Amino acid sequence: MKLNTHLCEILDIVHPIIQAGMAGGPTTVELVANVSNAGALGTLGAAYMKPEEIKMAIRDIKERTTKPFAVNLFCTNGTDQYDGVEESQKVLNDIREKLGIETSEHHVVTNNFFEEQFEILIEEKVPVISTAFGVLPKDKMAVAKQHNIIITTMVTTVQEALLAEENGADIIIAQGSDAGGHRGTFEIEKNTNGATVGTFSLVPQVVDAVSVPVVAAGGIMDSRGLVAALALGAQGVQMGTAFLTTTESGAHPVYKQALLNSSEESTVITKVFSGRPARGIHNTFIQAYFDAKISPADFPTQNTMTTDIRKYAAMQNNPEYMSLWAGQATRLLQNEVPARKLVLDLVAGAKQLLSTN
Predict the structure, then answer these.
(1) What pLDDT does residue 192 have?
(2) I want to staple 173 with a disulfide (CB 3.0 to 4.6 A). Which of 106, 154, 169, 271 is the partner?
(3) Who contacts 278 (Cβ-Cβ below 8 Å, separation ≥6)?
């Protein structure tokens, strides 16, 4: 095995490590640029950003690095789904009263900026576009290919991997259920949590099924995980949770502390924050829906409905009502480590393991 894999050649990076594009603020321009400058691939989580915000962030990243980086978008139906909104709002209003927020009865409208977001990525000549929840639409894929943009697609099953390859993905991110944050499952049936296949069960099966490079994601936190992923046939790893406690991370301080206080038993997969299944640390917000025996509304409506609560909880430094996305290996987290050091330590450790085995 070697660390300089074909993935490195395709992405024009030195180390086979991708920093996951975590939407909602953790992936600051400093984090993205410093990961890329360290020889890995930094990724801006842009799914919730307005087009102009994305443009400014991309230009800021380019001022900080000449190395390749990625921008992540959600490829899913961005249209509001109003089934269950009224029932869900009852739970949310109870929470609002506890936090001292004005209750809400207004009609929920989610802004869908996907078309404009994609146009910005093309205009700004982003080197890599990564997608979650599905593949780029055929017309968008054709445009990206015309501009020689590399496309990575997150999958959670072999069937999704085959679909991604068929639709033009250059690199497939095999995301196991160990992963923190949103499940990358393409189609979420109501009352299901999507595919929940573990990382090291999923990766070799995806590797055997497709011809494009496969990247392992989910629960990978250190050099041992990198080497194990390579041994299973992956050509690199994508890591999210590990970067949340870096010095450049935009994660809220109480979120970082909750991560450091958590263990492999702390997380659950839940839809209550966004309407799509995501793995995060169990807290009072999640328990409120469990106690009420009420299902949340669908994505993206539920995500819009919970925005005020999550923001207000952050202002109050109250982790009990924040979305604390985390994978299942948080005992391995390092506190306030620079992103560059995290990348270089991963590589150094992997080299040592490969040289002694």
Answers:
(1) 86
(2) 154
(3) 180, 181, 182, 183, 269, 270, 271, 323, 325
* Rounded Cα gap, residues 38 and 16, in angstroms: 11
Enter the tokens of residue 180.
Answer: 């923190």
- Say what the pLDDT of residue 104 is: 80
Task: Report the distance separating Cα 206 and Cα 214, nearest Å.
Answer: 7
Q: Which residues of the chain fall below pLDDT 70?
A: 357
Cα–Cα distance measured from residue 149 to residue 181, given in angstroms and rounded to the nearest whole number: 26
Cα-based distances in Å from 140 to 122, 171, 180: 10, 16, 28
User: How many Å apart are CA 327 and CA 8, to the nearest integer?
Assistant: 25
Give the per-residue pLDDT at 93: 96
**Strand, coil or helix: 88:** helix
Length of the chain: 357
Domain segments of the chain: what residues?
Answer: 6-79+111-261+329-355
Report pLDDT digits (tens) over 289-328: 999 999 999 999 999 999 999 999 999 999 999 999 999 9
Position 108: which residue type?
V
Half-sphere exposure of 284 (CA within 13 A, CB side): 14
